[in-house]
Amino acid sequence: MTVHNTDEIERLVREFLAAAEDGPEPGADEDLFQSGRMDSLFALQLVNFTERTFDIEVDVDELDLAAFATIAKITEFVANKQTAAQSV
């Protein structure tokens, strides 16, 4: 399992978001749902992307959309999952 640092995680998430939409790049703390950049279907695509890209598994009980509301929260979630996976 490749462990990515937070800068790499953020960069890859931003690239995924940029590929999905045109327009200005969202700020790290911009709520992607409130801004209309993301809906529940796109959130599932994002979850799938994070699982594949960062070699993590998002359990059903972790599917709290609040954890995927901002780039900063996504980065933190992925970093925490990678850390937890390393300590197993």
Descriptive account of the structure:
This protein has helices at residues 6-20, 40-54, 71-86. It has 88 residues and is mostly helical. α1 crosses α2 and α1 crosses α3. The longest helix is centred in the C-terminal third of the chain and has 16 residues, at 71-86. The two termini are 12 Å apart. The model has no long low-confidence stretch (mean pLDDT 92).
SS-based structural class?
mainly alpha
Biggest sheet: strands, sense, closure?
none
Order of helices and strands: HHH
Number of strands: 0
Radius of gyration: 12 Å
Mean pLDDT: 92
Strand content: under 5%
Q: What is the straight-line distance between the termini?
A: 12 Å
Instruction: Note the total helix count.
Output: 3
Overall geometric form: globular
Short description:
The chain has 88 residues and is mainly α.
List the keywords.
single chain; 88 residues; mainly alpha; 3 helices; 0% strand
Describe the protein's topology:
Elements: H1 6-20, H2 40-54, H3 71-86
Helix pairs in contact: 1-2, 1-3
